[in-house]
Amino acid sequence: MNSSAPPRIFSRERRISGLRRARVRQAHRDAARYIMDDMVEDILDRLEFIRMSPERVLVIGDWTGTLALSLRGAGSNVVEHDVATLDEERPIRGEPFDLIVSLSSVDRVNDLPGALLHMRNALADDGLMVASFLGAGSLPNLRRAMIASEPDRPTARMHPLVDNQAASALLQRALFKRQVVDSRRLTVSFASLDRLVSDLRDQGLGSALANVPPPLGKRAKKRADNAFMTAANDKGRVLEIFEILTLTGWKD
């Protein structure tokens, strides 16, 4: 039976460039980092709830270093990687790990089922994998603005996102046991579309599409700005939604 390579939706090189730019931007005092902070806090709460004290841990994608610092403080031996040092679409070296955590990373690979399977294979028996990333309910106002900017021939400018049902199927396909998918919403207010885009870039969440679209022209940008602000409340701010999906699976 012939197997075909997955379509190339994302560029690893663009992901690495976006991460490097985000780290530079984080030097500014007002740089946004609320998505990663929320994910790290959630992971620590989950581990405390299940009373897990893993000995060997792999953390992927946490550019703040906060999660690894907390886990090391609790006695864990932690290995940290990001897209520049770990290709999630290849087998993971240094296994087995008792816990693997992927934050805002695995959703931007071309072979997501393969990446999940690689993480499962890198787990020790009874090991736990937790992956958090932005889900399909995220950024509805930004999506509407991008569609309005080019009403005649819209260009693909935003990442395809995974929903709960697809995430559950992916965990099953990767042979995880006791798999759970849950989601939560983080709502953030913005005074402009430019501020939202700036926050995304601060957090390494800019576009990593392999096919780079041309920049918006002045008229298209104006249409996007106007469409975004149609959702503004009486204080002139748009409430944008970030839906965070968390996939949990055990290796039995």
From TrEMBL:
Natural source organism: Qipengyuania citrea
Lineage, broadest ranks: Bacteria, Pseudomonadati, Pseudomonadota, Alphaproteobacteria, Sphingomonadales
Protein name (record): Methyltransferase
GO biological process: methylation
PANTHER family noted in UniProt: ARGININE-HYDROXYLASE NDUFAF5, MITOCHONDRIAL (PTHR13090)
InterPro entries referenced in this protein's UniProt entry, alphabetically: Malonyl-ACP_OMT, SAM-dependent_MTases_sf
One GO molecular-function entry: methyltransferase activity
UniProtKB keywords: Methyltransferase, Transferase
